[in-house]
Each structure stands twice: as structure tokens, then as C-alpha cells.
Amino acid sequence: MSDRLKCVLVVGLGLIGGSFARAVKMRGLADRVVGYDLNPQECQLGLQLGVIDEQAEDLLQAAAEADLVMLAVPVKATEALLETLAPVLKPGTLLTDVGSTKMNIIEAGQRVFGNLPACFVPGHPIAGAEKSGVQASNAHLFERHKVILTPLPETDASAVSRLASLWQALGADVLQMTPQRHDEVLAATSHLPHILAFSLVDTLAHEEQNKDIFRYAAGGFRDFTRIAASDPVMWHDICQANRDALLSQIDQFTTGLARLREAIDQGDSQTLLGIFTRARVAREYFSTLLSGTAYELKPAARSETPTAEPVPSQGE
Amino acid sequence: MSDRLKCVLVVGLGLIGGSFARAVKMRGLADRVVGYDLNPQECQLGLQLGVIDEQAEDLLQAAAEADLVMLAVPVKATEALLETLAPVLKPGTLLTDVGSTKMNIIEAGQRVFGNLPACFVPGHPIAGAEKSGVQASNAHLFERHKVILTPLPETDASAVSRLASLWQALGADVLQMTPQRHDEVLAATSHLPHILAFSLVDTLAHEEQNKDIFRYAAGGFRDFTRIAASDPVMWHDICQANRDALLSQIDQFTTGLARLREAIDQGDSQTLLGIFTRARVAREYFSTLLSGTAYELKPAARSETPTAEPVPSQGE
């Protein structure tokens, strides 16, 4: 950021909020990092662990003093929080969030504010871990991970730039796309795989005779089901927040699976080999992308993606 | 084995056959380990790498001399191989295989021999890797992995015991079940997850607008699609070999997914939380099993499984 931050307020000291606070502190990007959590014990723990500099006694007063307010609360809690904060936010305060769905956050903002405030830049760091809580927070969590920003046409361009620079300073690779596209992409690459994993494990565990099936599980199954250990409440909320995009992805998948089932049933070798080979090629292409982005920034590769332009760093 | 093996013939020096040969040699369990492969270069490489002691010049002569013949060839090649070997196998020769489906191997044996020979003990080591070929073979591949034997009522019990002891000597955890149950279990825990992964990656890659979706893939997706990199031809063959059990598993899964889709569509929180929580509990139970079997043998846990009795080691 060209202007050093005076006061950053992080509302919600979970894994993501705590890691953001830690990262900003570790890199000395703000004079004060203030934390607030509905659970005062998490906040005190954050103070003890050095995740934050101060614990906010009064949320409204802290929000009024902050030049950046980061909302790191469950998606369902965002609307009520915006209503609480709306009266005290200064016009220049940069407001952002980390919700894993974006259309519903924007709709919540529109219900609260009418139009989304120009200084509200919705965001989503694609980073997470199986652990949760401030105890698990990690200042390096966002390094080499993607952060997607989803501004609207009315969003202030300089607010987007300032936020992008901050995330880049934390080591993240910042991309920008419409909130609709974000929700489609996440439905396909994260929400659908989780739903399939939950459904597979639940289906197998459903029948008494299957109790011992888990005992013989081969490698493929382990990979597949690891993600079914995720938090049920969080996934319940995601299913509601991104319902339409997720239903559309489930329907596409179901159609594809039915096509594959038909080929197995009919012994249609050509279709089977076609599907398996295309999947392998796509996966290999994907692996190349992943190995590239995990270890280095690849501006050339990024420019191939017309629907998701990287946000230029102010420092570049 | 109470009787030391004089001559082991391994037909097919791929990853599994090569690793079996290496493991028998490393542990000094046979006087001679002889290898045969349709591709003479693989066989010569096996000789150079010390995977085998000798390369069989004449398959029939080598089979006539062997007291253990291990068939480690693709499932589809097994019937022709059994026809070739049938005239020369000595009655006391222990014959086994490593095919990942068992009913079709047994049916192939019945077509060749009439009744399955008493000394043919079908087997399946649940071990594999993304690599293939004799170059990738590894003497430790089977350690702490499961080997499932699927004898028929007419199979010689002492042949089963001898083979079980050999696999145990290679570090494997040997279980026994009917070939039908084996094929059901593998359809559920290995073949279905692979089919879902292939189908997911193919469905996402299918549409032009999805080309860039892979770029944003979050953690869940990576786990999920890693297994879609498997060999298309092998999976084509498995889909034919285990067709009925696999179709049944796909149908169960599709029904379960439709139930979950309905709950998302209707915003049915109770059903969603029920499915996600059951899946998480099942997965955690499964993790406990896995962590147990990965590091230690757990006879108490094994005895909970009425349909799959462990085969006692002759040495116990």
C-alpha cells in the first residue's frame, strides 16, 4: 500500500481472520492490528499468541477508528454484522471480507446499504486448512495462494488497488472476476468435489453391510474422502449461500456420470477410453498449472485467462 | 512357508510382478526367481536391476519347473495365459494372480480348466502406485498393505495357507473373502471413486468456458482429481471386468447424490447436516482404521470383521 495503514480491525479471529492479522503484523504493514471476536476467549488467546496488538472492547468504536475493516466471520453472520457497522464506518474506510461465496455477500450488502458502498471490496482468499480457530492461525497461510476480489462497477478502483496491494504484500496471487463468475468457479472446483465426497462417504456408510468396506479402502478412496472430514456446519452454510451455482454443477456432473454409466453398461470401449483419456489430459494440464503457481508467479500464464485479469500491484 | 520354494516364476514384470519378484529375492524366500514378460526388454531390464535371477527363455518350460507361478499380467490377458500354461502345470504347483477383479479371473479359469484347479489361489494385493513398469518395482511395496485371497470351496486349504504365509513373509496383511465380496468391496472403495474422479474432471473439462476453471482449483479438487491421472486402458479394462458390481455402486451413489441435491434445493438443513455429519463421523472412523493398519497389525480390530477372516500364519 502506498499509504501505510494506521489501524486494521479484524472481526472474527478464526483461522482466516487470525492468519490475516498475524500476516499484517509480521510484515509490519499497519501501526495497530485490533481484533474482535464474539467469543472473548478467542480474542484473549489471539492477544496472548501475538496474533493481534489489541482486543477491541467496543466493536463500533474500533470500526470507527479503523482505516481497514476485515470481516472474517461466517457468511451467514455477515449481513447482521454489516447492519451493526453501517452507522459508524467512515467514508474512506476500506471494507472487505473473506467469504467463500460472493453473490450472497453482495446481496446482503445491498440490503443493508442500498447500493454497495464504493469502499467495500468483496474478497475470497483460496486458502484453508483442516484446522480451525485462532490457535491454528499462520502468518504464511496466504503465500502463493490465490485471492479473488469481486468488485462491482460502482466499487472504487483505488480501493480495489489498495486491497490488492495489501494481499500481494502478504504473498498472495491476486485475481479479479465478477462475483457471478467467482461463485460458478468455486461451485465447480471446491463445492461440487466436497459434495461428492460427502455423498460418497455417506452412501457407503449408510448400509449396515458396508461397515467393513472402509477397512479395505484403497488409495483412491483415501484421497477422495479426506475432504469429507470438513466442518458440516460450514458446508451446510455454503450449500445455502451458493445454492444455484452448486445445483447447476451437480446437474452437469450427474449428466456426465450417467453418460459414463451408460458406456460401462454397454461395454462401449470407445466412449470409456475417450472419457478416461480426456480426464487424464485435463488433469495433467491442471497439474502443470498447479506446479507453476505453487512455486513461482507466471504472468505469461495468467494473461491467457481473459475472464480473470490479475490486478496489477501498485508497486510494479 | 514351511517348505522353502525352489523356483518362483513371475509372468509379467510390471510394477506388481516386479515388486513381488524383488521382495521374494530380497528376503531369500526362493532358490531361483525366474521372470517372463512379453516385452523382452522389460525382462532384460529386470535382470539388470536384480529384480529376477533369470529370464525365462521358454515360458512353458519355466512353468513346468516352477513350484510357484505368479500371474501378474493385465486381467484381460489372464485367460489366454491360463490356456497356454494349462498343459504343463504340475499338480502341486501353486498358481496365483494379482488381478484387481476376481470373479472374472475365476470364470476365465473355469472356462479353461472346467473346475478351478485346487492349487489355483486367486489373490489381489491392494497396493499400487502412480508409476508403472519394472523400473518402478519396489521390494517393500506390499509391506503393511492388504492382500485379499479369494479361494473357492474346492481350493486346496494348504495351498491357501502356503500362499498366505508367503505374502505375510513379504510384510503384507492377508485377508480372505469370497470373490463376489471382493468385487463388491473393490467396486465401492476403489472403482467407484476413480469413476467419479474421471467423470468430474471430464465434465469440467468438457466445456470451452471451463478451460480456466482448473486455474482456481482449491484443495478439495486437487485431492479429488489426482486419481484421475490413472491409466485409461487399465480403467477401461476394470470397467468391463467388474461391470455389474460397479454399475450397482454407481446407482447407489447416484441415488445418494440425488437425495443430497434435493436437500440443497429445498434448503433442508436437517438433512444436509445429517448427511455431512454422518460422512464426517464415518471418515473419522475410517481414519482411525487406516492409522491403525498403517503402522501396526491389530488382530483385535481384524476379528471384528466377520466376512473377512484373517488367514492365520503358519508361523504363529
UniProtKB/TrEMBL annotation, chains A, B:
Identification of the protein by name: prephenate dehydrogenase
InterPro entries: 6-PGluconate_DH-like_C_sf, NAD(P)-bd_dom_sf, PDH_C, PDH_N, Preph/Arog_dehydrog, Prephen_DH
Root EC class: oxidoreductase
Enzyme nomenclature, EC number: 1.3.1.12
Biological process annotations from GO: tyrosine biosynthetic process
PANTHER family to which the protein is assigned, alphabetical: PREPHENATE DEHYDROGENASE (PTHR21363), PREPHENATE DEHYDROGENASE [NADP(+)] (PTHR21363:SF0)
Family: Belongs to the prephenate/arogenate dehydrogenase family.
Pathway in which the depicted protein is active: Amino-acid biosynthesis; L-tyrosine biosynthesis; (4-hydroxyphenyl)pyruvate from prephenate (NAD(+) route): step 1/1
